[in-house]
Amino acid sequence: MTSRYATGSKELAELFTAVGECYRAEDAESLFHLARPLLEFAARMPAAEVLRHKLRKMAERPGDLPSLTAASTWRVAGAHGVTLFLRMILPAHYDLEDAPASRLWACATHRALELERFEAMALSETGEPTLPLERRGRERLSPGEVLTLRARRDIVVPEVESTTLVYELVGEVLYDHRLVYDRDSLRPIMGLAASRSVAQLEYSVALLRDLGHAAAMDLLCRLALEHRAHFIRWRAMQAACELAGPARSVSLLESWRADPHPEVRDFVEQEIERRKTLVIASPKAEGT
């Protein structure tokens, strides 16, 4: 029997027609207008159809990797800045972390989903939380319902006893990093790159510094000045300063004092003072 998902899928076409009509990247919450189309898709497209299609492709082309974004998440389709995933919720411990994009969840099987919800109530101009998360209690997502989750603000932690599947409709990424929160203080304790490409860029910058690759100075300075992710600018500044040496690094740092992110500006000011001290203590540092 031919998979409905594999034959062009009228259901997918209708869903993404609605996406094209409703979603606007400049209005993140326009994603939430797609709640009804997502519910209609979930009701008409069993998760087993999607999984069977993925399995058939893997069997036909065993050398190809499945389109997984994580160990338990399959990319189904995407258009107009919106992507549909099939996500497996496992009976496991989940970190308390936000998402860099707004999302909609709908049950992909007959199983309901239990979860605990948190909310970031106050965000700075740069999108950083200024207060601990607020607990919003436990909720139940049942078949025929949609869960709306705003980027950075709404956090859910699944609590399931058996594997559950949900369809996840995701808008464009609004933040370059995700925040992981401490479960006791409900304050952020770690930032993680929101995409593989940004993570690889962060690691590459650190490796260039560790390898002492001075030929990368121009590139690092450009990243420090122009990249939209504040932590990439910060990493590039660190690397450029290490490669430049104490005296030249001070002049570089001076040029970065107007960075738009307060944490980066704080780093710059601290480094200027620290490196001025190094220059005074070792006036011949540049020639060694």
Report on the structure:
- With 288 residues, the protein is α+β, with helices and mostly antiparallel strands.
- The chain folds into 2 domains: 5-194, Sandwich (Jelly Rolls), CATH 2.60.120; 197-287, no CATH class.
- 37% of the residues lie in helices and 23% in strands.
- The protein has 8 helices and 11 strands.
- The chain has helices at 10-22, 35-44, 47-60, 196-210, 217-226, 230-244, 246-255, 262-281, and strands spanning 68-70, 73-79, 82-89, 103-107, 113-119, 134-141, 146-149, 154-158, 164-170, 177-181, 188-193.
- The strands form 3 sheets. Strands 1-2-3-9-4-7 form a 6-stranded antiparallel sheet. A 3-stranded antiparallel sheet has the order 6-5-8, with no helix packed on it.
- A hairpin with a 2-residue loop joins β2 and β3.
- α4 runs parallel beside α6 (230-244) and α7 runs antiparallel to α8.
- The chain is elongated, with a radius of gyration of 23 Å.
- It starts with 9 loop residues before the first helix and ends in a 7-residue tail after the last helix.
- The model has no long low-confidence stretch (mean pLDDT 86).
List the helices and strands and how they pair.
Elements: H1 10-22, H2 35-44, H3 47-60, E1 68-70, E2 73-79, E3 82-89, E4 103-107, E5 113-119, E6 134-141, E7 146-149, E8 154-158, E9 164-170, E10 177-181, E11 188-193, H4 196-210, H5 217-226, H6 230-244, H7 246-255, H8 262-281
Antiparallel strand pairs: 1-2, 2-3, 3-9, 4-7, 4-9, 5-6, 5-8, 10-11
Helix pairs in contact: 1-2, 4-6, 5-6, 6-7, 7-8
